[in-house]
Amino acid sequence: MIHRWSIARRLFVANLLIVVSFIAVVGTAAYVDARDRTYSEAGLRMTGIATAIASNPLVLQAAGTQDPSSVLQPYALDVMEAAHVDFITIMAPDRTRWTHPRNEELGRPYIGSIDAALRGETFTEVTSGTLGPSVRTIVPVKDDAGTVRALVAAGVTVGTVDVAFAARLPALAAIGLALLLGGSLASWLLGRYLRRVTRGWGPEQLSQLFAYYESVLHSVREGLILIDTRGRVVMYNDQAAELLGLAQSSGGDPTRPPSLSDLPLDRELRSLFESGRTAKDEIVLSGSRVLVVNQGPAAGPEPFGPRGRTPVYGTVATLRDRTEIEALGNELETMRTLSDALRAQTHEHANRLHTMVSLLELGRTQEALDFATKDLELSQQLTDDMVGSVDEPVLGALVIGKAAEAHERGVHLDVAALGSGTSPGIAVQDLVTILGNLLDNAIDAAADAPPPRRVELTVESDEEGLDIAVHDSGAGIDPATADQLFRHGFSTKPGGPGGRGIGLALVRQAVQRLGGRLTINGRRGAKFEVFLPATASPGAPAQEHRSAPRPAAGNDAAGKGA
């Protein structure tokens, strides 16, 4: 049954037992001490009374007479009544009583020890006499020569002493009761606090619950990281360690969790964690990954505290890897571009076909033939130029689609390729990400600029790697925004961050993942130059260089991705 008790109840019972035991021990000690003190005080009082009587010259004078009792008995009775003692016995050195509360005891021998008094010493003892057990003090009466001529015994019965001791018991009982009530109240308050903190769970239940949470924490496929209000990482699971490049969580010292500044996190992700703000499906670039972050406060399930506030223990963040989804999205965007290009070409081909049909209906056969031949030569030349420039079919299709899109927007796309246009060790998906986003930004920038609107694409491959250069005739790079151009979420285009601010960030991430170098040149428009080594070294930091960016009066080359 005790296993079902909560921590609060167990602590209350344990503390109550400790308090009761403490009161029992202390009460017993106080009882014995009070009893001893009562007897000691009675002995001291009897010593004072007996000494005062022995010092009275009347006693020494009466001791030398034939009938001491006739003088000393009335005196002793008066002192007994005034001093509130049970008996005063004045006796001869041979124990013969000269005084006694009972007249019939006069002349009889004294019952008790007198050896020390005969030696001239004062002593106190507890012994039984004619009146029962009593506390008595015996003092010698000496003459001028120091000879013991008489003995004085003053005492009170044990019953009288116990009555005096019993008067102290209510105070001891009150102290014990106060300790019991105070300890019980402290235990109840502490138990109430623990009941709220532990939600009424017992230690075995908490241990089992922690084991379940630990298993769930490390078995879920999403990364989970717990951060307290001081910016310290309380716990993270295996998936979070993999996504963030952290060491596997081994428990460590729970009293000294690492802070966010001690972990190798990207600046953007660290800023999000440190802010503690609520985030829902927020995309963050971390190293070579695209992460979807959800973050919220770690609060208690119910109000708690003296003011009924819900406690906030920190933040809980979940991480999902979206890198592959983003790559698929880029490929889908490429296919959409090609589809739009084919749709535009179909529309344009229909217009030209109607023109040729009209010329034939008008009987202008030669003019229709010349028009068809010239249109075929232009279309074939565009296809031959694209296919001949880039050997990789996926990149060739991407460039053809971008060329058609640029043509629709009044931008002329020039393509020049030296080599195959690819390099060993570089995935075509990464090339699509880099080239597609750079061309989108360049076309946007050129379309917003005055004529002539041109975009130049140069792809050169050799044994060292692949060089890509995209140069547009746009307004150029604004020096004020050059440092933020590759930051996720930053965009110079209208429409805010929704759907923008990720293109150039993905370019930088892909270049970083491939161990390449990214250069921005702002002369005569914007020129982005990318070098990707033939043997990619994932994880090597990308190098970004900017050379003399020319101030821009309007939009820069950030485009859709910036």
TrEMBL record:
Localization per Swiss-Prot or TrEMBL: Cell membrane
Give the Enzyme Commission number: 2.7.13.3
Query: Per the record's keyword annotation, is Iron-sulfur included, yes or no?
Result: no
Query: Entry's InterPro entries?
Result: BphY/WalK/GraS-like, HATPase_C_sf, HATPase_dom, His_kinase_dom, PAS, PAS-like_dom_sf, sCache_3, Sensor-like_sf
Q: Which SMART domains match?
A: HATPase_c
Q: Which GO terms describe its molecular function?
A: ATP binding; phosphorelay response regulator activity; protein histidine kinase activity; protein kinase activator activity
Q: What is this protein called?
A: Sensor-like histidine kinase SenX3
Give the residue ranges for region: Disordered.
536-562
Listed A to Z, the keywords are: ATP-binding, Cell membrane, Kinase, Membrane, Nucleotide-binding, Phosphoprotein, Transferase, Transmembrane, Transmembrane helix, Two-component regulatory system
Which class of enzymes does this protein belong to?
A: transferase
Organism encoding this protein: Pseudarthrobacter enclensis
**Domain PAS residues, every copy:** 209-250
* Every Histidine kinase domain range: 431-536
A Gene Ontology cellular component where this protein is annotated is: plasma membrane
Q: Where is it predominantly found?
A: membrane
Which reactions are catalysed by this chain? Answer: ATP + protein L-histidine = ADP + protein N-phospho-L-histidine
Q: Does the keyword Nucleotide-binding apply?
A: yes
Domain of life of the source = Bacteria
